[in-house]
Structures
1.
Amino acid sequence: MNPSPSQRSGRILLAVSGGIAAYKVPELVRQLTKAGHEVRCALTPAACEFVSPMVLQTLSGAPARSELFDPGEEGEISHIELADWPDLVVVAPATAHVLARMTAGLADDLVTTLLLATRAPVLVAPAMNVNMWDHPATRENVGRLRERGVLLEGPVAGELACGWEGEGRMAEPEAIAARVGLLLSGDAWKGIRVLVSAGGTREPIDAVRSITNRSSGKMGFAVAAEAARRGAEVVLVAGPTALSTPPGVRRIDVETALDMEAAVNAEFPACQVAVMSAAVADFRPAHREAKKIKKEDLGPDQGLRLDLVPNPDILAGISRERGDRIVIGFAAESHDVVEAARRKIARKGCDLIVANDISRADAGFDTDTNAVFLISPGGEAEELPLLSKAEVAERLLDRVEKLRGVAR
Ligand code: CTP
C-alpha cells in the first residue's frame, strides 16, 4: 500500500525498551515500512529479552542495534550519525524506566544516548502496569517530557499483561503508525475543532445604555485566524466588535455574557481546543429596563443606582467539563501579573493562562502588540517578548500543539 498523497514518508528511528509490549514491535515495523517509511531499530538490553533484534533487522531491512560501543556497529554508522539520521524518533514501548531516564537526561545505553543526542521530534508510546503509570513519579516525568515537546501516543486502557486492568497498554501498532503519518504530513490540525471567544461583552442597562469594557477582540481574532491558517476548523464566539471575520472561520456574534456562555457551552462539546480570550463582564445589571431610563423620571439632580449581579464564569464552567480537551484562559492583570495569574489558573482549572499586563501602553486592550506570560497549572511562567498579536497567537498555538502532543 502506498502512503496517501498528503502523507510524506520519512526516516523513523524506532527505539524499543524492555516491556512485554515489545512483542508488538515487529508488527509496528511492518506497518511503518508498508506506509513507505525507512525504519531503523535500536533496542535497550532489556528489550532484547522481549523481541529479537534479528526479527526487527529482517523486517526493517537495516541493522537493529543494541550496543553503544560495538566496534562493528559503530563502524557501520556511529551512534551520533544514527541520532542525526531520523525525521522522527518513536519510542515503543516506552517503559516507566525509559521515561524516567529521558526526563533525567541520562545516556547510559544506546537508546537513551540516541534520545539525548537527537534533534528530531520524539513520539513515545508508553506501556506499563497501571499503578506505575499512575505513580506520581511517572505523572511528573510525563508532564515534564510533554513540556519539552515530547509527543505521546497512548497508553490506552484495557487488560494488561500483568493481570491488572486500566490505563497502561501500549497503543496498537496501527494507531502509532497512523500518528507517525500524521506527524510527518504536517496535518496536525486536520479535523481539530477550535473554539475561540473574543472581544468584550455588553450588558444592557436599558434600551440604549450598557456596561462594557475596552477589549477590542484583536487577540482572539488573531488566534482564530492562526488556527484556521494551520488547518483547524474554527468557531469564533465574538462580542460586539468592528473586526472582520478571518478567512475560514465560522463566527457567532453575541452581546451579553449570558449569550456568550450559551454559545460557548453549545459549541464546546464538539471541540478539542478552547481558547477563551474574551473579556467577559463580571457583573450585569439585575434588571434591564425595556425603555430608555429618562432623567426626568428620576427627579432633578438624582443619581442612578444600579444593582449588579454576577455573571457566570464561562471559562471555569467549561474547564470543569473538559475531559481530554485543551482549555486556555486569559488573564488581564494590572499588577502582580504572574502571581495573580497563578492564582487565577488554580481557580479556573484550565490548562494554560495567557497573562497580559494591561498597565502597559503597548500591551493588553486595544493594541496591536502584546506582552504576555504563559502560565502553566504548576505555576511555571514563560515570559514572551513584546510581539504582534499574530505572533502571540502563533506562540500560543505552538504551545497548544505541545499540550495536545503534536509537535511542529
Ligand atoms: N472569564 C469567563 N467568564 C467570566 C469572567 C472571565 O470566562 N465571567 C474568562 C476570560 O475569558 C478569561 C479569564 O476568564 O479567559 C480571565 O478573565 P479575567 O477578566 O482576567 O479574570 P476574572 O475571572 O474576571 O477575575 P478578576 O476580574 O477578578 O481579575
2.
Amino acid sequence: MPQRKIIHIDMDAFYAAVEQRDNPELRGKAIAVGGSERRGVITTASYEARKYGIGSAMPGFKAKQLYDKIIFVKPRFQAYKEVSNQIRTIFHKYTDIIEPLSLDEAFLDVTENKINEPIATEVAKKIKQDVKSITDLTCSAGVSYCKFLAKIASDMNKPDGLTVIKPHQAEKFLETLPVKKFFGVGKVTAKKMHSMGIETGADLKRLSKVEISERFGKMGAYFYDIVRGIDNRPVKPDRIRKSLAVERTLEFNVDDYEDAENIMTKILEEFYRRLKKAQNYGRTITLKLKSADFKIITRSSSRNYFIRNEEEIKSIALKLLFENLDEVAPVRLIGLSASNLEKEQKEEEGQNGQMKLF
Ligand code: TTP
Ligand code: MG
C-alpha cells in the first residue's frame, strides 16, 4: 500500500470569525459567540478574546470577569451552515474522500486527487487559498500520512496555519506530545493516565501491549498503535454514512448512569418510532456521546441481520451507553443512529445494477 496523504482542515475561531466577517464593527475586538454575562456558555471566542483566557464552553459571567469589555454576540447557525457547505464544495474540487467531523472540520484523503498534485502540502495550500477567497475566512491545515497526526498538526499553528508531520518525524513528535493532546484521550482517561505517571507519549510507550490493554480496555490497543505513529483508519466519506439518527443536546451536563439511562430511554422511543415508520432497520447501531468539552466519541455494535426487535435495540443501546459513558462524562449530547440500512443497501444494489449498463 502506498503511503497515504491525509489533510485535516479546521476553520479558525469559526463562529467568531464569521461574525467578525459579517459585522465590521466586531473586527479586531474581543468577542464571544453565545452566552451572556448573566447566563449560558460561550460556543467560541475570537482570537482577541483568547488572549484573556476566554474560550469555548466557558460560562459567560466568567468571560466577563476575565475581560469586562468582552462583546457577546448571538450565534447565527444558518450562516455557519452556509460556510460549511461552501468549504465542503471546495474540498470536492480536490477529492471525494472527505470525512466531516463537524461544520468546520474535515479529513481529506488526497493520496490520489482530482488535480493530480503529488505533494499533499501543495493541495493544502490551494485549499487554504480557496477557502480564503471564497469565504473570506481562514482555516488551518494539518498534513500527514494518517488521520491522527493530520488532526494534531492542524492545531499546531493556528490561526491560518499549515503544518506538516512527515513519517520520519512522527515518533519523536509523539514522544514529546502530552497525552491529553492525543485524539481520543478524554478528560477521564487523561486523569487516569496522569495518576499512573503517564504525561507524554514517551511515558505511554513504556507500557507493553498487554499492560495498556489491561488498563484501558479496547482503547488501549488504539493508544498502543498511535503512540508509535500507526493509524490505518481510513478517511470515511460522507456518503457511506447514510443513517437514521436521533440526538439530544442536554440542558445539563450528565455524568450519572441513571440520568443517562433516562435520557436514553426517551431517545430510544423516538428512535424506534422512526425506524418503524420508515420500515428501514439497520444492521449497525451507533451510540454518539459528546462531552462537555466537545469531544465526540461514537461506538457501534453490528449484527449480520437487520435489527428489528425493539427490545434488542434497547439492550444494545444501553450496553453501549454503560460501557462508554465513563470515557467522556460529563456528556452534553447523547445520540443513537442506525446504519447499514435495509433501504440503503437496496439502493446501492440498484446503483450498481445501473452502472453495469455503462
Ligand atoms: P473548534 O474548531 O473547536 O473551535 P474554533 O473553530 O472556534 O477555534 P479554533 O481556531 O481553535 O479551531 O469548534 C468549531 C466551532 O464549533 C466553534 O467556532 C463553535 C462551535 N463550538 C461550540 O459550540 N462549543 C464548543 O465547546 C466548541 C469547542 C466549539
Ligand atoms: Mg475550528
